[in-house]
Amino acid sequence: MDAYIAILAALGFGVLLSGGFMALSWFVSFMQGQNQPDPIKYTTYECGIPPKVNARQRYTVGFYLIALTFLIFDVETALLYPWANSFHKLARELGAPILWTMLVFTALLVVALIYMWKEGVLDWARRARTQGK
Amino acid sequence: MEGFLLKPIAPHLIVIAAGCLVLLMRAYGKKTSAGASGAVTLASLVLALAASVFLHGDAAKSAFSGMVVDDNFSLLVTVLVLFSGILCVMLSFDYLKRIGIAQAEFYSLVLFAVSGMMFLGSASDLVTVFLGVEIMSISIYVLVGFNRGRMESTEAALKYLILGAFASGFLLYGIAMIYGATGTTNIAQVAEFFKTHGPSQISPLFMVGLALLVIGFGFKIGAAPFHMWVPDVYQGAPTSITAFMATGVKAAGVAVVVRVLMFAFPESMDRWVPLIQLLAMVTMTVGNIAALTQKNLKRMLAYSSIAHAGYILVGLAAVYSQGFAEKAVSAVFFYLLAYTVMNIGAFAIMILLGRDSDEYENIDDYKGLAQRRPWAAFFLALFLLSLAGIPPTAGFAGKFYVFTAAMRAGFVALVIIGVLNSALSAYYYLRPLIIMYMSDPDADIVENTERRPALIVAIGVTAVLTLELGMGLLAYLAGGGSYYEMISGYLARVM
Amino acid sequence: MLNQYLVLSGILFTIGVTGVLLRRNVIVIFMCVELMLNAVNLSILAFSRYHAGLGNLDAAMNGHALVIMVMAVAAAEAAVGLAIVISIYRRRETVDVEEINLLKW
């Protein structure tokens, strides 16, 4: 049970610490004087060129598709790493199946890639052209 | 060295290969109709069903260093989810065309979801359990939001995704703690660990892990108090997917609960059975009370599916009876089978009557249906009576076995609550019946009159099975062979 | 050392859970879910190290494999999640869960 008391104590300490910081900053700003809002204070950075448009613009969905594709294919590669690392040892013990299993996995990724290709996810330039017109 | 035997996962491989094939057909032949993909899907599911039955040997075979196992338990789960998948595809043919989302991707996602469920059935390692849950859930997230034009559909997908991922987090934390406590993720080795080290090793770490696992699984099977996503998601999803989720996903979820709790932690049964009992009581009551006031048939069936999850948990708690555990698990499986046929039947009628993009889901739409479509009204009445648990239907037989098992385990209070709940549920199942048979038809309600052969076949199969499973109870009581006896015969060999 | 890692992982997991329950922006909710999964990864790795310290190297390797599986799965889940969010945003112009309420919770 001792281990759990340590967890509780750490949690309590965290709450106290963050609460303490909040109280401190609130107290300091309270002591520093009152809140005097002013239109200039609300502009971006109070200096430089005033922004012309809202920063939250919509991008073409192509960006998201590329991002999603990258996310999947990049992280699935992580599965290859431990396999490659232990390939020599395992191949000596278990033989060819070690190679097949990873080939099957790669084949599944290739199927996904072919599907995306044919659906036009990777056809980035044409999408931009047709949307521009 | 058992190595890389492919035979135990041959049915899984068939389903996955078919899923890839459907995707590639779509990629290379833009003109291939969705109907062709549906046909390939149906054929592959039937092939996988045949493979799982014929390749199945009596002895349990494990493969891939104990990650998957092919035993009688996994055979039952595989047959159940494939059956549910086949019926779902049959329901989808016309429905997808009607609401304008007939795309090949739908079928390939169904296939991937089914493969995840099959892996859940044959998982013998907590890592496989996690992967199976995720393969199933991720496919289902997309399927729920497949009707992109309908806002409810995408919204339901978002809710399901957030809560599903949340539940996966709990599930995984539970797995991590059990791994920490025992040093293994293999289900047989976890059980072995507790057998050799004795109950003194049941540490707080392990108990927290167990509780987190139950929370995670509770979310997946829609048990109260983790049920809040169920009505929204079931209502928003395309109807054939709702039917699939209520039956296939639930069956796979219950199966994996049984697999993990019964096979990994039989030694600590006195710790988790009270938890399951509590869940069962709350789930039944919450589901039934919330269903009472529903005006939307789809939403009502969603709440009723929560209630049915409660009855299933009653059966699961009943494994506590000494020496009769396999009887209780057979009761759970029988209930799942009965629930699958009667629930898919009810959804099939809804799809049959729907017209254009109208979902035909308000209970008031069914006014005077008996005069306009006597056969549809008759079959819907049959399925609703079965869901209410009126003899001689499958629903009654299922409840009979589950409650008998709970009595045998000595849970009298649980059985009393269950029976009271069944009586309560009769109210909302009978209301659509009264509306169909007693009220006059509304002039402005027009339902579909096209012929839909796939749906008719699905309704026929489910109706026959509903009666057949119900009649089996008589044979069982007379001491003859029944489906229940068959299931428990299979399970007795592995439990 | 095990305890400290478990405490950290517990705190991260709790922050994730709190975020999922309290935040209103769907993207932030997804980040919190990822935080939950990665907190679990941390504790699995800590356990793995602990079992290695006990001399149980097989158990340690199991933990590493599990972590990599979880990472791959989490990426798939995030991709599907973002795709669903995009499809909602294109119809509704919002990612605030309080405004996505056609169906009652």
How would you characterize this protein structure?
The complex is a heterotrimer of chains A (133), B (495) and C (105). Helix content of chain A is 71%, strand content 0%. By secondary structure, chain A is mainly alpha-helical. Chain A folds into two domains: 2-46; 61-132. The longest helix of chain A is centred in the first third of the chain and has 30 residues, at 2-31. The termini of chain A are far apart. In chain B, a hairpin with a 4-residue loop joins strand 1 (61-63) and strand 2. In chain B, helix 2 (34-54) runs parallel beside helix 4, helix 13 (325-353) packs antiparallel against helix 15 (374-388) and helix 16 runs antiparallel to helix 17. In chain C, helix 1 (2-22) runs antiparallel to helix 2 (26-53) and helix 2 packs antiparallel against helix 3 (57-92). Chain C has a single domain, classed as Helix Hairpins (Orthogonal Bundle), CATH 1.10.287.3510. Chain C has helices at residues 2-22, 26-53, 57-92. Classes of the chains: A mainly alpha (133), B mainly alpha (495), C mainly alpha (105). Chain B binds chain C through residues 127, 130-131, 134, 138, 141-142, 145, 148, 151-152, 154-159, 161-162, 165-166, 168-169, 172-173, 175-177, 179-180, 183-185, 228, 231-232, 235-236, and chain C through 13, 16-17, 20, 26, 29-30, 33, 36-37, 39-40, 43-44, 46-47, 50-51, 54, 56, 59, 62-63, 65-66, 69-70, 73, 76-77, 80-81, 83-85, 87-88, 91-92, 97, 100-105.
